[in-house]
Design goal:
With 260 residues, the chain is an alpha/beta fold. It has 11 helices and 10 strands.
Amino acid sequence: MGDQLKGVISEQLVEAAASLIVDAKRIVAFTGTGIASTQTHQVRASGVLEEDSFPRFQGDPAARKKGWQLWTMFHMIETSQPNAVHYAIAELLKMGKLECVITQNVDGLHQKTGIPDDKLVELHGSLRWLKCINCGRRYHIIEIAKKLAEGQSEESLCGDCGGKLKAATVSFGEPPLTEEVSKAERFSRNCDLFMLLGSSLMIYPAAYMPVYAIESGAKLMIINTGTSHIDDKADVFIQGDVGKALSAIMDKVRMKMGNA
């Protein structure tokens, strides 16, 4: 990668990034916590999604009670709104260029812009759902929230097996979602442009996805406020605000495609 394709946002970098998108036919957009909603960060800061929540959740009633702060999660899902990055990715879908979104976020914001489930891989699960830690049955958060409003105990049990319910997110100590990881790898290996947006790639197996894409011949675009271990492999690397950079890039894409 030449130096002219690396740096803070500039007209030259915007032009190069837009050209990659225009030329691409199968884009994978990979999104991380750098584009997550403010509400998601607030929920994490509150301790509802503690890193050690899963091993403690199984044996500690106090940890389960804390993990069952369902109204906090429900409020976050209901009130959070997509940002410029989410809408830009949705526009790629409308252009017929987006193959898939792979996200490390759990806030459900990609769905709010119209990304269908068959084009979305949630590597770390979703706050929109609860799951039984015994049989795996999932319950929509709104369904359980209504039951809580009717007086059901927060120490809720699965209707199928009586197992305990927790947020359907991957906690520390919990195995990765095998099916989602497999889908993410498949999409990554079959794309022709991998867009890494707002992720430092510190968590595995998520961090393998851009590597799979490069190994299969895809171009790599990175837009991050920070850095990652794969920055030197990028065809275009823009360091700065993801929303600002991607908005400028999409303006240029529309011009190039005659849709301005």
